């Protein structure tokens, strides 16, 4: 898998100072708790005051790669403390980075959280956790995290996925593949645009997995007004129920995504922004040490109001009973 030259958008020192000071002020105003609901409600009012330089860095994805890296935010390896061994033990570790990430997310759109994941937090801590090494979730380590659309099972999934790197001493790579760089046969695009199979909730959503409703079939591909988009999660798609023709087309899409996949090794302070309608992402396997020095990312999800990259039929899906929370102004 090649390590591609990822598009980089550099924050200048003035913008970094502005962003971190705004994050620190919000934390101070709301008791130092980045999970404060009052802080979340204040995000839009603070984000609108940020300078044009920050807003320019947060402009939409503008290449077929479907992603970019925001660079320049400093991370002090000692100050942030050890990598948690589970998201639930992270506490307020790296709190100023949580808020800075949310401010960037609010410039890009509307941050969302899930009632059924990480206790409804707007920023998730992605760390390897003992006992979860072989799962297809962010807590895994020893297995390849298969390329997938984030929260593909849900019609209200994010348009943008944001991954902020806190620690990555072992240069563990995030994988990414854009459907707009894949070479697909028109017949396969047409076939995979039919709603033939459901995408089931992943292991991070225990309540959704217990939902009693019938899983709705959904299209894998869709030609939006802006171009081809995808909704893809083979680990949670019952491909055994597909026709031979559909499975063959799905396999060819999988092969093409593998062919164009690149490895992005994030450095502390890097913020990877992924267009969740164009790009599937994953992670290479690694050996976790559980000694406080393992890879540690922070994740935020963003909806972009008015975006036309989803089929209208998604409005009729039940979402397996899961509801998304949005960061709205007070």
Q: What keyword list fits this structure?
A:
alpha+beta; 23% helix; four-stranded antiparallel sheet; eight-stranded mixed sheet; 330 residues; single chain
Question: What do you see in this structure?
Answer:
This protein has 330 residues and is an alpha+beta fold. It is 23% helix and 20% strand. The strands form 3 sheets. Strands 1, 2, 3, 4, 6, 11, 13 and 14 form an 8-stranded mixed beta sheet that branches. The longest helix is centred in the N-terminal third of the chain and has 17 residues, at 13-29. It starts with 7 loop residues before the first strand and ends with a strand.
Summarize the structure.
The protein is about 25% helix and about 20% strand. The strands form three sheets. Strands 1, 2, 3, 4, 6, 11, 13 and 14 form an eight-stranded mixed β-sheet that branches. The chain has a four-stranded antiparallel β-sheet with strand order 5-12-7-10, with helices on one face.
């Amino acid at each position: 898998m090649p390590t591609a030259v990822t598009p980089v958008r550099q924050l200048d020192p003035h913008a970094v100072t502005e962003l971190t000071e705004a994050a620190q002020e919000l934390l101070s105003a709301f008791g130092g708790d980045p999970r404060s609901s009052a802080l979340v409600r204040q995000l839009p009012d603070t984000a609108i005051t940020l300078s044009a330089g920050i807003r320019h860095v947060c402009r939409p994805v503008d290449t077929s790669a479907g992603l970019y890296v925001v660079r320049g935010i400093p991370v002090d390896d000692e100050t942030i403390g050890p990598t948690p061994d589970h998201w639930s033990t992270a506490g307020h570790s790296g709190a100023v980075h949580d808020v800075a990430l949310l401010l960037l997310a609010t410039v890009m759109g509307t941050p969302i959280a899930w009632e059924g994941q990480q206790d409804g937090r707007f920023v998730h801590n992605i760390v390897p956790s003992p006992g979860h090494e072989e799962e297809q979730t962010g807590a895994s380590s020893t297995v390849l995290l298969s390329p997938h659309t984030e929260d593909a099972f849900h019609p209200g999934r994010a348009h943008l996925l944001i991954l902020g790197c806190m620690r990555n001493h072992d240069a563990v790579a995030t994988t990414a593949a854009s459907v707009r760089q894949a070479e697909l046969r028109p017949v396969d695009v047409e076939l995979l645009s039919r709603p033939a199979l459901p995408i089931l909730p992943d292991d991070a959503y225990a309540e959704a997995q217990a939902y009693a409703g019938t899983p709705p079939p959904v299209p894998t591909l869709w030609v939006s007004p802006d171009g081809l988009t995808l909704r893809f999660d083979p680990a949670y798609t019952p491909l055994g129920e597909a026709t031979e023709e559909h499975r063959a087309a799905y396999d060819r899409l999988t092969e093409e995504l593998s062919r164009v996949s690149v490895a992005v090794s994030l450095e502390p302070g890097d913020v990877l922004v992924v267009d969740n309608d164009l790009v599937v992402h994953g992670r290479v396997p690694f050996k976790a040490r559980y000694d406080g020095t393992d890879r540690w990312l922070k994740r935020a999800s963003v909806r972009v109001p008015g975006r036309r990259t989803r089929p209208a039929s998604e409005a009729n899906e039940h979402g397996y009973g899961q509801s998304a929370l949005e960061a709205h102004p007070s």
